[in-house]
Amino acid sequence: MDKKTLRLKYKKLRETLSEKSIDEMSLQIANQALKLPIWDKTYYHIFLPISSKKEVNTEYLLHILQGKDKSIVISKADFSSGEMQHFLMQENTVLKTSEYGIPEPISGIKLSPEIIDVVFVPLLAFDQNGHRIGYGKGFYDRFLEKCSSKSLFIGLSFFEPEPKIMFESTDVPLNFCVTPEKIFDFKNIRLSLYD
């Protein structure tokens, strides 16, 4: 199935989800994420959900990170350049919802992608090899490309994987993907793709 068809399929699937089921599955995803071998790191990048697009509610993950006293990084998207700026989330960080429905920091301490240890990645769909489909703007692929080779990329999904997604050379694969039911581990697959 091509990317365009998959995007339509998963947007339609998301539309069927109630607020209650989104909340319940988001909590399950956060609980599953606790089993990941990632909690000894320092800098964690998290996306703040676009509620109109029925994305995974990362509030539960945010609470886990705060409870573990981790440094949390959030982003601001620049649609004219296609790049994201990354900011340290602090107690006094003021968020404003952009015209695209994305909660973003107004200002703050800017951080370089190279120092980020773990990135929780939004997606519409993913496959059994760790490839993901986003909304097609390429923001995350450009961002992940700039991260350290040691950074870990964790997808969050309400749905199970597709068998295979056609990917391009600019697509950056995931290390893991967390669903309400299980964790998919792509570490070995990812290494074999780049060996």
From TrEMBL:
Reaction(s) this enzyme catalyzes, per UniProt: (6S)-5-formyl-5,6,7,8-tetrahydrofolate + ATP = (6R)-5,10-methenyltetrahydrofolate + ADP + phosphate
Protein residues bound to ATP: K3, K4, T5, L6, R7, R132, I133, G134, Y135, G136, K137, G138, F139, Y140
Enzyme Commission number(s) of this protein: 6.3.3.2
Domain of life: Bacteria
GO biological process, one term: tetrahydrofolate interconversion
Binding site for substrate: I50, E55
InterPro entries listed in its UniProt record: FTHF_cligase, FTHF_cligase-like_sf, NagB/RpiA_transferase-like
Top class in the EC scheme: ligase
SUPFAM superfamilies linked: NagB/RpiA/CoA transferase-like
Keywords: ATP-binding, Magnesium, Metal-binding, Nucleotide-binding
Cofactor: Mg(2+)
Single GO MF annotation: metal ion binding
Pfam families in the record: 5-FTHF_cyc-lig
Family: Belongs to the 5-formyltetrahydrofolate cyclo-ligase family.
Protein name (database record): 5-formyltetrahydrofolate cyclo-ligase
